[in-house]
Design a protein that fits this description.
By secondary structure, this protein is an alpha+beta fold. The chain contains 6 helices and 10 strands, in the order αβαββαααβαββββββ.
C-alpha cells in the first residue's frame, strides 16, 4: 500500500514538474518572439508612406530625416485640413525650418542648412521621439532598402553632431565672455557696459567691455572680460575706453 502511494506521489510530482516546465518554456518562447518582433523595423517606400494619410489608411504617418512616426494621436494637428497635415505621408524635413508648406517646396534635403537650422531639425526629431511612436524608416535619401543609414544619412548625422557641439562651445564661450549690455543715445552715441547679470548670465564678477572677434572674421561682439589685462588674439580694447572701466561710450 505504501509503495503504491509513494509511486503515485512521485508520478504526480513528475507530471507537475513536466507541465510547469512546459508552461515556463512556452512563456519564454512567447517573450522571445515578442522581443524579436519589437526589434523588427518596418521599412516604407515613398508610395507606401503616402497611404498613411488618415483616408487610404486610418493612421497618420510622417517622416523626418527618414524616421517614420505615427502621429495619429495628434489628429487635431495633423488630420485632414489641420495646420500640419502638409507633413503627413511624406518626408518634408526641410520645411520644419523653412516654414514653406507648399507641395512644390517639399524636400528632405538638409545638408546645406546652417548649424542653427540643423539643430532646429534635430530638436523636431527629439520632439517626435518623445511625444509619438516611431514605427519605421523611409527607404530613400536617409535609409537603404536594408534599413541601414545611407551615406547621405551618415553625413547629415555628422553635420548635426557638429552643429550641436558648436552650440555647446558657443554656450561655454558665453559663460567665459558674457555679452555686454548695449544702449544707444542720440546725444552720446552707443554705450556698452558690464554688470553681474549682463548677457543674462549671473556671476560673482562684473568685468570690463572688450571687442571679442570671431575666429577668422572681422566681425566682433561686445564681451565682458573678467580680468582687465587678459591677453588674447580674439580680444581688443575699445578705443577711448579706460582699461578698468565697466562702462564705455564707443564710436563703432
Amino acid at each position: 500500500m505504501f509503495q503504491k502511494v509513494f509511486v503515485s506521489s512521485v508520478l504526480f510530482a513528475a507530471i507537475v514538474i513536466y507541465f510547469n516546465t512546459a508552461i515556463i518554456q512556452y512563456f519564454q518562447s512567447f517573450v522571445k518572439t515578442s522581443v524579436s518582433q519589437d526589434k523588427q523595423v518596418n521599412l516604407f517606400t515613398k508610395d507606401e508612406l503616402k497611404l498613411y494619410n488618415g483616408i487610404d489608411k486610418p493612421q497618420l504617418y510622417l517622416a523626418i530625416l527618414g524616421k517614420v512616426f505615427d502621429v495619429s494621436t495628434g489628429a487635431s494637428h495633423y488630420g485632414n485640413g489641420a495646420t500640419y497635415n502638409f507633413f503627413i505621408g511624406r518626408d518634408a524635413s526641410r520645411s520644419f525650418v523653412t516654414g514653406k508648406f507648399d507641395v512644390n517646396d517639399v524636400s528632405d534635403q538638409v545638408a546645406d542648412l546652417t548649424a542653427e537650422e540643423l539643430r532646429s531639425v534635430n530638436h523636431w526629431v527629439q520632439f517626435y521621439n518623445k511625444d509619438y511612436k516611431r514605427v519605421g524608416k523611409l527607404i530613400g535619401r536617409y535609409y537603404g532598402a536594408d534599413g541601414k543609414l545611407s551615406r547621405y544619412g551618415k553625413e547629415v548625422k555628422k553635420l548635426i553632431q557638429a552643429a550641436e557641439l558648436s552650440k555647446d562651445n558657443e554656450d561655454l564661450e558665453k559663460l567665459k565672455y558674457p555679452p555686454c549690455n548695449v544702449e544707444w543715445d542720440a546725444q552720446r552715441g552707443t554705450r556698452v557696459w558690464c554688470t553681474e547679470k549682463s548677457g543674462g548670465i549671473s556671476r560673482d564678477w562684473v568685468g570690463v567691455p572688450r571687442q571679442l572677434y570671431l575666429p577668422g572674421s572681422q566681425d566682433y561682439r561686445c564681451a565682458c572680460v573678467k580680468i582687465a589685462n587678459e591677453v588674447s588674439a580674439s580680444l581688443k580694447q575699445y578705443d577711448g575706453c579706460d582699461d578698468n572701466s565697466h562702462s564705455c561710450f564707443v564710436t563703432s
